[in-house]
Amino acid sequence: MSGNAGTSVLGVSKASLDALVAHFGEGAVTSQQRYDALARFEELPVRESIRGGRSWKRDLTKLDLSGVPTFETANVELDLEALLPTARRAGVVVERISLAREKHREAFEAAFGKAVDTRDDKFASLALAFQNHGVFIDVPAGAVVDEPIVVGYEAREASLFPYTLVRVGDGARVTILERFAGAENAPFVCAIAELVIGAKAHVTFAVDQRLARSTRIITTRRALLGADAELHLATAELGADHAVTKMRVAQKAAGSRASVTAFFFSAGDQHIDVETETIHSAENTTSDTIVRTAGIGHGQGRYLGNIKILASGHGTDASLRDDALLLSDGAHVDSVPALEIAANDVKAFHGATVGAISEEEIFYAQSRGIAREEAERMIALGFFEPAVARFPGEALRDELRAALAAKLVRGTSD
Amino acid sequence: MSERGLHIANLTAGVEGNGILKGIDLDVKPGSVHALMGPNGSGKSTLAFSIAGHPNYAITGGSVTLDGEDLLALPPDKRAKAGLFLSFQYPASIPGVSVANFIRSARQAVKPDDLTPAKFRALIFEQLDVIDMDAAFLSRYVNDGFSGGEKKRLEMLQLAMLAPKYAILDETDSGLDVDALRSVGNSVSALRKTESGKDIGFLIITHYPRILQHIAADYVHIMMDGRIVKSGGPELANEIERRGYDEIREEVAARVG
Is the confidence at residue A49, as pLDDT, over 80? Predict the structure, then answer.
């Protein structure tokens, strides 16, 4: 344990954790784990991986959580009835995470902390220390869940620290959609999603973040893939005042395949950071990352992408494609893709572009009768489409397209 | 009210202060096919872009009217609505916008609400047959990753779907293999046999005469150094094939000199 009641890091005090522990007792996260996590949060530096010599309006080094209510008991219980009955029919366990350790101990312990390592991650440590919400989903081996399981997190006036823990058994198939929404006065969300995926399982995990413009959210998403497993991990970061998302897929078993997708559209005064990383340390794994980032108004954002191939990652085939679109002079988006390769017999590709809408594209559309404004709208929305197209379900894709279109219209003023 | 036609009179234009077109006169009547031929750098594509309203080309004099309407006063999209179509030599790709959505938006822009969705669908499938493409073509992103032949087929699909009054085909034959060229030829021939296509006036810009084996021209014009130096009937294309541009250039120089 560390930290005195009087000290605080970024405005987070031990006293607030004391209060939380007194209230919750032992849940998914033990008291010991919480205090250890707080200590790590206090010790670890804020890792600002992309700087670009620019002074950013929003920055984790400037984070101040003092005065932010760290938890509240009201309104944070997950509505399990909203989780689809079809999931239950397939034998899937869907449980509030606070009860999961006790009720499904073996399955819980087979997954908890297996993909997320908070030892080197400051904000995953914070999320773990104050975890006050979340769900455990256990899909048994061979189960096929027809409809998506929707996990909805509704941020209110209290801070939300949700933990989504997913274990998927060998050969199972499931789609999970995590939604973040909330009230205008919701202050802070710090979340973890942890996916532990069995051999030959087929998993789609999509995130739709549309929090109110007052909210700050920091999320850590980690997946561990079994042999020949397939994961489609996707996040749409459209909401919040300041959103920071780090996604990492660990491909430590042979033959696994991952697609990673992320897009954000930073409008008005928003700042959105996304990091993705695929780590290939087993034979013949593949990953395919597509990222689309855009800014309008004075929106800011950063993308950091990495493909890491260890010496043991023979036969890896990994690609990373990220494109940034600037729709106003005041917007700024940085993009830093990287490759770290320690094996010889691999294929790795990355490509990146940053720019405004091309005049040649506009003229081409105009030459077909499409007015300039409509042409710009069409091209801007089309820019996101390769990312949107990888989200599950036409209904969700249409929702995301509509949300993008609305931001495009309001863009500069909002 | 002037009579119908795409009427180009004494047009001068250029890029960044460099004059390229040095006074072009051309009159394309409904239903007629004009071929504009000339060596590289003669200003053929500049003429096409100037008529269509490309922002990089500055008009310095002359006029272009479409059935009496002053095209030069209009932005590019209004020129298309007036009935102009340009088939690009190098069409832009628009990632994320499907061929079907693009053409639907374009059709809606130039001919609002004239087709029910079912009729639009029937028409586009009919036209896909003409260009030898299948339905999957419609869900691909506009020109994104297309081969040269696919790009030109998409230009022809749009030409048929938009049924303009006047169409400029800029080097539509360049870079095409025999099959793709035949497909383009078939597409134009089929269009000219339809009610909506029979009155389209064509200006076919080309370096080589071979596209004219698939689309018969009524008139052939030779362009050199920003001017039309010689006009005639279809036989002029054969003359180019036989003599080459250099010999014609010498003849013209001797005449002017």
Answer: no
Tokens describing residue A313? 């990652």
* Rounded Cα gap, residues B183 and B127, in angstroms: 11
CA-to-CA distance for A326 and A266, rounded, in angstroms? Answer: 10
Is B127 in a helix, a strand, or coil?
helix
Condensed to tens digits (0 to 9), the pLDDT of residues A119-129 reads 888 999 999 99
B50: Cβ contacts below 8 Å, ≥ 6 apart: B11, B13, B21, B57, B59, B64
pLDDT digits (tens, 9 = 90+) for A218-240: 999 999 999 999 999 999 999 99
* Among the listed residues B68, B39, B71, the one whose alpha carbon sits nearest the alpha carbon of residue B57: B71
What Å distances lie between residue A144 and A69, A135, A167, A399, CA to CA? 40, 20, 14, 26
Q: How far is CA B140 from CA A114, A376, A397, B135, in A?
A: 40, 19, 17, 10
Regions in chain B scoring below 70 on pLDDT: 1-2, 256-257
The verdict on B163 touching A (C-beta cutoff 8 Å) is no
| pLDDT score of B1 | 47
Q: Which residue in this structure is represented by tokens 């094939």?
A: B241
B141 touches chain A (CB under 8 A): yes
pLDDT-derived band at A5, boundaries 50, 70, 90:
very low
pLDDT, one tens digit per residue, over B71-115 is 999 999 999 999 999 999 999 999 999 999 999 999 999 999 889
A366 and B76: CB-CB below 8 Å?
A: yes
The closest alpha carbon to B109, from B138, B132, B79, belongs to B79
The span from the CA of A383 to the CA of A399, in Å, is 16
- Which residues have CB under 8 Å from A289's CB, separation 6+? A259, A260, A261, A276, A278, A305, A307, A318, A319, A320, A321, A322
Structure tokens at A75: 């309104």
Of B86, B97, B105, the CB nearest to A367: B86
Helices B117-130 and B99-110: crossing angle, nearest 10°? Answer: 120
Percentage of chain A modeled with pLDDT above 70 = 91
SS3 A316: coil
User: Using a CB-CB distance cutoff of 8 angstroms, which residues of chain A are in contact with residue B85?
Assistant: 367
Dihedral of CA B230/B231/B237/B239: which sign?
Answer: negative
Interface predicted TM-score (ipTM): 0.96
Torsion of CA B196, B198, B199, B202, to 10 degrees: 110
Q: Please give the Cα distance from A375 to A368 (Å, whole number).
A: 10
B88 CA: distance to closest CA in chain A (Å): 8
Question: Do residues A4 and A116 lie in contact, with contact meaning Cβ atoms separated by under 8 Å?
Answer: no
Strand duo B219-224 + B33-37: pairing: parallel
Alpha carbon dihedral A11, A14, A15, A19, in 10-degree steps, equals 110
CA-to-CA distance for A239 and A407, rounded, in angstroms?
10
Residue A56 CA to residue A54 CA, distance in Å, equals 6
In this prediction the pTM is 0.91
Residue located via tokens 């310095």: B60
The most distant pair of C-alpha atoms in chain A lies apart, rounded to whole Å, by: 68
CA-CA distance, B207 to B39, in Å (whole number)?
Answer: 6
A408: closest CA among A386, A391, A383, A388?
Answer: A383
Query: Given CB atoms, is A368 within the 8 Å cutoff of chain B?
Result: yes
Of B75, B88, B96, the CB nearest to A384: B96
Instruction: Kindly list the domain boundaries of chain A, sorted by start residue.
Output: 8-253
